[in-house]
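Holo prediction. Input below; ligand is iron/sulfur cluster.
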Amino acid sequence: METGHPGPRTRYRFGDWLFYSLMAAVPLLTAAVAIYPESILGLIGYLALLGAGGGWTLFFFCRHCPHYTRDEPRLKCIFFWGLPKFFQPRPGPPSLAEKLAAAAGLLVLFVFPLAWLVEDPGLLAVYLLSAGVLAAALRRWECPRCTFSDCPANRVAGGTGAPEQQG
Ligand code: SF4
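Structure of the complex:
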């Protein structure tokens, strides 16, 4: 996987998806480990929520992303690999309502397992740290060269594809 900032990321590779999927699996698995012993229904609800959250994000946000609007039948990016495009692509910027809906969905996914995680400080620490590492990796390695210029997290300097200075 590229770790520098050679320019805009017009295409992702399978290794990129694998890297970020493994990284995202740590907080998700930690949450599941915290929920399962307490409530099998809670775990089923969490898994259902993850699936619904993925669809929610695809519908409200990803449909506007260049990796989704590209004229190909399947989505290939850092979080979805080979996924059929269930929703019609919508080139152009997402509306404020769509951005808020996508952000609210992610917030619900993040907050839901906290009710169980607070009962186990060790798992809570792993959950928060691994989620932080994932967010930092995206912020440091992807946002400065992301082609989705309408994403609120985009950090491409001047929209030119040139990376910002790293702190
Ligand atoms: S790169 Fe991000 S915004 Fe674009 S389709 Fe993938 S998950 Fe959605």
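Helices lie at 14-35, 40-60, 66-69, 96-111, 114-117, 121-142. That is the main takeaway for now.
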